[in-house]
Amino acid sequence: MAAKPILYGADWCKKTIAIQDYFKTHDLAYDYINVEQSDEAMQAIQDMNRSKVRFPMVVVGEQKPMKNPSPEELDAALAENQ
């Protein structure tokens, strides 16, 4: 079974909202973690970005985390995760 993608972002972030729309449009289940509501989530994105706060970040299975992925990058990552 394919791993559910994880989206790290913030509710006010237009790029986060665009990725949420992508998942909804493609009828894909995903986990959303608001980095502003969790110190652990904030630390996780810093760990993914050499101590810098950058989001949205998407993690698909065991693949390398993606910073602000395009729809094409999401398509490829999700296809690889099947």
From TrEMBL:
This is Glutaredoxin domain-containing protein. It comes from the Bacteria. Gene3D superfamilies: Glutaredoxin (3.40.30.10). It comes from Rufibacter tibetensis. InterPro entries: Glutaredoxin, Thioredoxin-like_sf. Residues 7-63 form the Glutaredoxin domain. It holds the Pfam family Glutaredoxin.
